[in-house]
Amino acid sequence: MSRGIDQFLLVLSLIWCCQFSYAQNNILDHRITISFNGQSVKEALKMLEKEVDCYLTYSNLDVDLSRKISKQFQNVSLREIIGELWGERQIKLRTKGNTIGIILDEEKSSPRQGNLFGIITGDKGESVSFATVAIKGSGKGVIAGEDGIFSINQISAAKYTLAISSAGYEPKEVLVEVRENQTVKVEINMSGAVSALDEVVVLGKSVEQKKREDPIKIEVIDVKAIQSQSISIPQVMNQAAGIKVRQAGGIGSPTVININGLQGQAIRIFRDGIPMDYMGRAFDINILPVDQVDNIEVYKGVLPVDLGADALGGAINYVSKGNGQNNLSASYGIGSFNSHQLNLTAHLNIPQTKFFTSLGSYYIRSDNNFRMDVQIPDPVTRNLTETEIERFHDGIRTWFAEFSGGVANTKWADLLKFSYANFDLNRDLQNNVFLTRPYGEIFETERSSIFSSQYELNRRKNTLKLFGAYSKRRTVFDDTPKNTYDWFGNATPINPESNEGELERNKSRRRQNFKTWTARLVYQYAFREGLSLNFSHLFQDERRVGRDDFYVPISIGEQDPLSFPGTYVKNISGLQLSSDIGKRIETIFAVKRYGIFAELATQRLNELSSIDPVEVSNFGLASSLKYSITSDAFFRISYERTTRIPTTLEYFGDGAFTLSNSALRPEQSHNINLGFYGNLNSKKNKIDLILFYRAVEDNVFLRQFNIFYSQFQNLDDARVWGAETAVKGELVPNLKFQATLTYQDIRRVNIENPGERILENSRQPNIPYFFGNLGVTYKPEKQFLNGSWQVYTNYAYTEQFILFPLPKELEPPLFGNANEVQGASIIPTQHLIDVGLTYNPSKLPIWLNVEINNALNVKAFDGYRIQRPGRFFRIKLSYRLEPK
């Protein structure tokens, strides 16, 4: 393998050298003949680069790249042509080899400036409040006032295209000309009410052009388009190919995310590119409302070094709401099981300043008192009988609020932001993992205070991003009951002198305090467009200390393991070269270093705990190549050798059900992805196909010790191969669809335990291996009841999968029936249907949504055969004032 890497590096070095080898002393005097026929300035510059074999570097702020050029040049120097493209603005040209730097001559080209004043009205003469007015190609824009009036002052005298949008109106573009020392008045009329809702869009390439063309596989789930729906993040993500989110109960219950056969902690979670460890559970997928994010980026295979990740081949990045423009969003939802959800987000740019302030917040509560089947022993015979009961102790109450402020678009910073957040969680526990014991008084809490800062600067070829955060989290697990309970909620008093708990033989109140420091640096140097070098470093320092108020020593001299301070320090560095080779080929090559130092008390059943150090340092590499067949179709192939460092939860345990383990080794994996993206019969219908392979060493799994305790352990190796596909498009006008299908074969290999070698090459239990999804959305053109409507439905299919390990020869076949021996170890095939309807009154930024989940009321299961809620209803009212 080392030899192959050396050969790859040699080839990459030769390609890079060839890209810089061409030089010409008088390149600016090179005379050429070229014609521009309506191309934009940006397209014209690309044509020049190809014609002369040179590289042009410039600032996008110095020229209107969208301006059209129609002109012929006959035997004209390159210097003159570039000057013509820049118009009346005087420039300086600097050359180094075949690279040409274009710099604005500030002394000679002080821009002539003028002002814009406008008013926006609707087709009935009404004022269009809070419309977004953007200058195309410049990144500049404003929000109109409540009276529809806007102004843009001190802009260069030139012709511009204004893009105007507002909820409830058709977007519009207007051509205006700003004159020197004048205020130009423009009247804009908007018509044609439309709904701001759109379908769920799950793309194999980003909405933004850069991500759309990235050789790294990124799916973008457009959450912003469905924020008016009463839908949860797990539901949204389950509509994407290759992703399976399983939830052990209702709102707030534990979830497991599976991407291309890898799951749990192997999938890292980020918020705006920052690992979310410092956030605690505030942005857990089982809590986070869709209203708090604009979209979700799902990375498969290679991860860019910017993320600073030690994932094993998959990552999820939540992109927070906010685009730097004034906006306000509020919603309230109510649903079955006494569920309530309130969201409020806002952003305000302080007039006449560079300062801004913002708020992101939510409040959630639910009783989660849905009905489910459990095995209850007969009081006389002790035979188990399946009985339907109502969950009586599974409630959750949580809130989160984050306040931010700072400056933007200054000479010394594109962004400087300071944030403070508070998070509060109270959650009841109803039962143990295998549904053999009910609880009636056990609960857990988490309180967090989070401080963070962010700095960004982008100047010419250099981009710098800094992030720092400090968080203090306090968790409590309380098992100090006065009663024990049966499945029907009947209480039996506990003898106060017995010191008995519901979960354990003794009462327990485990308190843990976490202090976490997180820092990340990202620096990018762009040699030219399409050729850049990125460096990133992530530092994380987490300290834990705690105690159990009711700790009882196992033996003489034994101390409470929580009382020993836990230390966890992680450093991850990465260097990535991104390059294009001609028009069709784009590549990346990256090297990464993973380092961890930890100290913790290892718990051993019936033995003394001990303080153990952990220190590991590993290296990894990644490479990806994309070949474009056409502008709408391409192939992508990637390889990564990666390391996944165990988390603090896996090392330290949770202080309750999960024991600590200092002997854990980092997981490592070889990841290979091969993909195709392109059109089917038209540009409206597209297909995204991926083949993947994973060779995982030292798998970390949560292993059950007994009915009470479990521990994360390295369990053998795994081989994963599979395929996923997503097809989306439009069946008929206004009727859109999205279909996904995933197969993942996950096998245990190299089993060391002699007693388990019969399971060699057997399927990993408790993980779905074949599943799919079909979503359909219909939005009629004609209005009804003076508003627009959207009707949608989603069908989710999961093939039966094994609950406990089975030898390969006993596994039920795909679409086959489980025999009597397998029956008790099978999670059955599931068919779930959700339906919903959204109504948007004409010209009002209000949306009303009604949704029915599990409409057929079928029995649904996730991990360990824990039953999910049956049919339940949700209603949501949303109000939004924000640019589309």
Short description:
By secondary structure, this protein is mainly β. 7% of the residues lie in helices and 53% in strands.
Oligomer: single chain
Number of strands: 52
Q: Which percent range describes the beta-strand content?
A: over 45%
The low-pLDDT segments are 1-25, 193-209
Helix content: under 10%
Q: Output mean pLDDT.
A: 84
The backbone outline, from C-alpha atoms, is globular
- Please give the alpha-carbon distance between the first and last residues: 49 Å
Largest sheet: 22 strands, antiparallel, barrel
Structural class: mainly beta
In DSSP terms, counting alpha (H) and pi (I) runs of 4 or more, how many helices?
7
- What integer value in Å does the Rg equal? 30 Å
Protein architecture, described:
The chain is mainly β and 884 residues long. Helix content is 7%, strand content 53%. It has seven helices and 52 strands. It has a 22-stranded antiparallel β-barrel. The protein is globular and about 100 Å long. 36% of the residues are buried. The model is unreliable at 1-25 and 193-209 (pLDDT under 50).
Question: What is the strand and helix layout of this fold?
Answer:
Elements: H1 2-21, E1 31-40, H2 41-52, E2 55-57, E3 68-77, H3 78-85, E4 91-96, E5 99-104, E6 113-121, E7 132-135, E8 140-143, E9 149-156, E10 159-165, E11 172-177, E12 183-189, E13 202-203, H4 209-212, E14 218-221, H5 233-237, E15 243-247, E16 255-259, E17 262-263, E18 268-271, E19 274-275, E20 293-300, E21 314-320, E22 327-335, E23 339-349, E24 355-366, E25 371-377, E26 384-390, E27 396-408, E28 415-428, E29 443-459, E30 462-479, E31 483-485, E32 491-493, E33 508-528, E34 531-548, E35 566-581, E36 585-602, E37 610-630, E38 633-644, H6 648-652, E39 658-659, E40 667-682, E41 685-697, E42 700-704, E43 710-714, E44 717-732, E45 735-749, E46 770-778, E47 787-798, E48 801-802, H7 820-823, E49 826-827, E50 830-841, E51 846-853, E52 872-881
Parallel strand pairs: 2-5, 6-12, 18-21, 39-43
Antiparallel strand pairs: 1-3, 4-5, 6-9, 7-8, 7-10, 10-11, 13-14, 14-20, 15-16, 16-17, 18-19, 20-21, 22-23, 22-52, 23-24, 24-27, 25-26, 27-28, 28-29, 29-30, 30-33, 31-32, 33-34, 34-35, 35-36, 36-37, 37-38, 38-40, 40-41, 41-44, 42-43, 44-45, 45-46, 46-47, 47-50, 48-49, 50-51, 51-52
